[in-house]
Amino acid sequence: MLPVLDPRLRLEILVHLAHRSNPPRAGGSRRPEREAEPLTELSQLSTDDLGRLARMRELAIAVTVDAGGLSAGLRSLAVANELKALETYFIRHGATLQMMRSLFKVRTKLTIARRRELGVRYHFGRPLLPQAATCEAIHAAWSAIDGASPRMRYYRLHQAFPQYTLATLAAVVQKLGSDE
């Protein structure tokens, strides 16, 4: 348990408890009498009285955090942040609207808005393909990237060929894939 020492935060907690401590409705769960009585009294206090109560040192207010739930939440947050960073990377490096739709499930309007927000200029139309030898090298690198999701394959491919936009790399992969 973590003690709450900040008087403003203690007041917020007491106000929250006062609002939540209304008597249970018919058929609702009931608190034991020894818990219900102080909470009922709490709900009848004025804001000034709640403030004075929050400043009293003898009233211990503490927070319990579920470590397992916190860890799971932190992992989920890290995955979401990583996905957002990858989306931003793709937008900054010239991913097409179709790539954003298929790889990230991002709507066209949102991709366009994010481009504007990031100051990314996008050239519509078919990208110019590199020379044939470079296209073969790109295709070989694409084929060598195994066991990854398509978005990670494109990311790794762009890491190997950063001089080209993702739109160009996708066009090369699609062209050589359809020639086979």
Structural class by sheet pairing and helices: mainly alpha
> What is the C-alpha radius of gyration, as a whole number of Å?
29 Å
The main β sheet shows up as:
2 strands, antiparallel
As for the number of domains, it is: 2
Separation of the first and last Cα atoms: 63 Å
Number of strand segments: 2
Taken as a percent bin, the fraction of beta residues is under 5%
Shape: elongated
Order of helices and strands: EHHHEHHHHHH
- As residue ranges, the low-confidence spans are none
Mean pLDDT: 88
Oligomeric form? single chain
Portion of residues within helices: 55-70%
Helix tally equals 9
The largest sheet has its strands arranged as 1-2
Sum up the structure in keywords:
single chain, 180 residues, mainly alpha, 2 domains, two-stranded antiparallel sheet, 9 helices, 2 strands, elongated
